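Posted in: Structural Biology > Protein-Ligand Complexes

Title: Requesting predicted complex, adenosine monophosphate in pocket

I'd be grateful if someone could produce the C-alpha coordinates for the following input. Sequence and ligand are given below.
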Amino acid sequence: MDCLFCRIANKEIPARIVYEDDLMVAFEDVNPQAPVHVLVIPKKHIATSLEITEVDNALIGLMFQTANKIARERGVAGSGFRMVMNCNKDAGQSVFHIHLHVLGGRLFQWPPG
Ligand code: AMP
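-- Reply #1 --
Done. Output follows.
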Protein backbone atom coordinates (compact mmCIF):
# COMPACT_ATOMS: atom_id res chain seq x y z
CA MET A 1 0.00 0.00 0.00
CA ASP A 2 1.39 3.35 -0.98
CA CYS A 3 0.76 5.33 2.18
CA LEU A 4 3.22 7.98 3.35
CA PHE A 5 2.64 7.38 7.05
CA CYS A 6 2.79 3.57 6.68
CA ARG A 7 6.15 4.14 5.02
CA ILE A 8 7.29 6.33 7.91
CA ALA A 9 6.10 3.69 10.40
CA ASN A 10 8.01 1.03 8.39
CA LYS A 11 11.15 3.24 8.34
CA GLU A 12 11.09 3.38 4.54
CA ILE A 13 10.97 7.18 4.71
CA PRO A 14 12.94 9.12 7.31
CA ALA A 15 11.16 11.10 9.99
CA ARG A 16 12.12 12.59 13.32
CA ILE A 17 10.52 9.88 15.43
CA VAL A 18 10.05 10.94 19.05
CA TYR A 19 8.17 7.89 20.35
CA GLU A 20 7.49 4.35 19.20
CA ASP A 21 5.97 1.20 20.64
CA ASP A 22 4.32 -1.89 19.17
CA LEU A 23 1.21 -0.02 18.11
CA MET A 24 2.08 3.67 17.79
CA VAL A 25 4.62 5.99 16.22
CA ALA A 26 4.98 9.71 16.94
CA PHE A 27 7.13 12.03 14.87
CA GLU A 28 7.76 15.72 14.30
CA ASP A 29 5.52 17.36 11.70
CA VAL A 30 7.70 18.39 8.75
CA ASN A 31 5.83 21.73 8.53
CA PRO A 32 5.27 22.70 12.16
CA GLN A 33 2.43 25.09 12.98
CA ALA A 34 3.47 25.63 16.60
CA PRO A 35 6.63 25.25 18.73
CA VAL A 36 5.40 21.72 19.52
CA HIS A 37 3.86 19.91 16.56
CA VAL A 38 4.04 16.15 16.74
CA LEU A 39 1.92 13.64 14.82
CA VAL A 40 0.76 10.48 16.57
CA ILE A 41 -0.22 7.61 14.28
CA PRO A 42 -1.24 4.01 14.82
CA LYS A 43 0.93 1.55 12.91
CA LYS A 44 -2.32 0.04 11.65
CA HIS A 45 -3.48 1.72 8.46
CA ILE A 46 -6.81 3.46 8.97
CA ALA A 47 -7.53 6.00 6.22
CA THR A 48 -9.81 8.45 8.03
CA SER A 49 -11.58 8.69 11.36
CA LEU A 50 -14.68 7.41 9.55
CA GLU A 51 -13.02 4.01 9.19
CA ILE A 52 -12.46 3.59 12.94
CA THR A 53 -14.54 0.66 14.20
CA GLU A 54 -15.18 -1.08 17.49
CA VAL A 55 -12.09 -3.28 17.09
CA ASP A 56 -10.02 -0.07 17.24
CA ASN A 57 -11.42 1.24 20.52
CA ALA A 58 -8.35 0.36 22.57
CA LEU A 59 -6.03 1.58 19.83
CA ILE A 60 -7.69 5.00 19.75
CA GLY A 61 -7.41 5.26 23.52
CA LEU A 62 -3.71 4.56 23.21
CA MET A 63 -3.37 7.30 20.61
CA PHE A 64 -4.66 9.83 23.13
CA GLN A 65 -2.46 8.45 25.90
CA THR A 66 0.55 8.75 23.59
CA ALA A 67 -0.42 12.33 22.76
CA ASN A 68 -0.68 13.10 26.49
CA LYS A 69 2.75 11.59 27.10
CA ILE A 70 4.26 13.81 24.39
CA ALA A 71 2.52 16.92 25.74
CA ARG A 72 3.90 16.19 29.21
CA GLU A 73 7.41 15.50 27.91
CA ARG A 74 7.40 18.74 25.91
CA GLY A 75 6.22 20.76 28.87
CA VAL A 76 2.91 21.92 27.40
CA ALA A 77 0.51 19.72 29.35
CA GLY A 78 -0.05 22.31 32.05
CA SER A 79 -0.05 25.39 29.83
CA GLY A 80 -2.37 23.71 27.35
CA PHE A 81 -2.22 22.07 23.98
CA ARG A 82 -4.48 21.09 21.14
CA MET A 83 -5.14 17.66 19.65
CA VAL A 84 -6.54 17.73 16.12
CA MET A 85 -7.63 15.01 13.73
CA ASN A 86 -8.76 16.31 10.36
CA CYS A 87 -11.22 14.23 8.35
CA ASN A 88 -11.60 14.59 4.59
CA LYS A 89 -11.43 17.59 2.31
CA ASP A 90 -13.13 20.48 4.08
CA ALA A 91 -11.12 19.83 7.24
CA GLY A 92 -7.91 19.82 5.21
CA GLN A 93 -6.90 16.18 5.60
CA SER A 94 -3.96 15.67 3.29
CA VAL A 95 -2.57 12.30 4.44
CA PHE A 96 -5.07 9.47 4.50
CA HIS A 97 -3.73 7.53 7.47
CA ILE A 98 -5.23 8.81 10.71
CA HIS A 99 -2.99 11.04 12.79
CA LEU A 100 -3.45 13.12 15.87
CA HIS A 101 -1.76 16.49 15.66
CA VAL A 102 -0.33 17.45 19.06
CA LEU A 103 0.13 21.22 18.99
CA GLY A 104 1.43 23.37 21.79
CA GLY A 105 3.75 26.11 22.92
CA ARG A 106 1.64 29.04 21.78
CA LEU A 107 -1.84 30.45 22.26
CA PHE A 108 -4.46 29.01 19.90
CA GLN A 109 -7.55 30.75 18.66
CA TRP A 110 -11.11 29.46 18.74
CA PRO A 111 -12.93 29.00 16.45
CA PRO A 112 -10.09 27.46 14.42
CA GLY A 113 -9.37 28.87 10.99
P1 AMP B 1 -3.44 16.66 7.67
O1 AMP B 1 -3.48 17.86 6.77
O2 AMP B 1 -4.30 16.76 8.90
O3 AMP B 1 -3.70 15.39 6.90
O4 AMP B 1 -1.97 16.59 8.24
C1 AMP B 1 -0.90 16.04 7.54
C2 AMP B 1 0.34 16.56 8.19
O5 AMP B 1 1.42 15.74 7.79
C3 AMP B 1 0.70 17.99 7.80
O6 AMP B 1 0.77 18.79 8.97
C4 AMP B 1 2.06 17.85 7.12
O7 AMP B 1 2.93 18.91 7.41
C5 AMP B 1 2.56 16.54 7.69
N1 AMP B 1 3.50 15.81 6.87
C6 AMP B 1 3.41 15.56 5.53
N2 AMP B 1 4.45 14.82 5.13
C7 AMP B 1 5.22 14.61 6.22
C8 AMP B 1 6.45 13.92 6.45
N3 AMP B 1 7.11 13.29 5.45
N4 AMP B 1 6.97 13.92 7.70
C9 AMP B 1 6.33 14.56 8.70
N5 AMP B 1 5.16 15.20 8.56
C10 AMP B 1 4.62 15.24 7.33
